[in-house]
Amino acid sequence: MPGTVITDGDASSDYVRCLSPSQSEVLDFDDIYSVDWWHPGDLARGFQHRYRKCAEVLVPDRVEPRFLNGAYVVDSDAAGLVTGWGAGLPIEVAPSLFGGE
């Protein structure tokens, strides 16, 4: 979609890089899709990994439901909210993806 931007980390960070979707090859997808970002004994690597795991896709206006194939949510309350949107998406409660359990 025109105006879509990807980031290499948390978009609110002072150090984020905002990129064109065509530049996605610079993203570290191993870090982004890993189950967790903990690196015991290597605090700097942990901070770096956590930053990368927060990469974002920023889409102007809205993302139409036809572009979505499911949602991960932190808990049953969030699942209820997403269900209430009426998109009919498969929803998986996965607190570990959000730093929980």
Structural commentary:
This protein has 101 residues and is α+β, with helices and mostly antiparallel strands. The protein has 3 helices and 5 strands. The protein has helices spanning 29-33, 43-53, 76-84, and strands at residues 5-7, 18-19, 57-58, 71-73, 91-93. The mean pLDDT is 91.
Strand order of the largest sheet: 2-1-3
Structural class: alpha+beta
SSE pattern, N- to C-terminal: EEHHEEHE
Q: What is the end-to-end distance?
A: 35 Å
Helicity range: 10-25%
State the major sheet: 3 strands, antiparallel
- Unreliable stretches covering 5 or more consecutive residues: none
Give the C-alpha Rg.
Answer: 15 Å
Number of helices: 3
The average pLDDT is 91
Strand content: 5-15%
* Number of E-state strands: 5
Q: Which overall shape is indicated by the principal axes computed on the Cα atoms?
A: flat
Main features:
two-stranded parallel sheet, 3-stranded antiparallel beta sheet, 101 residues, alpha+beta, 25% helix
List the helices and strands and how they pair.
Elements: E1 5-7, E2 18-19, H1 29-33, H2 43-53, E3 57-58, E4 71-73, H3 76-84, E5 91-93
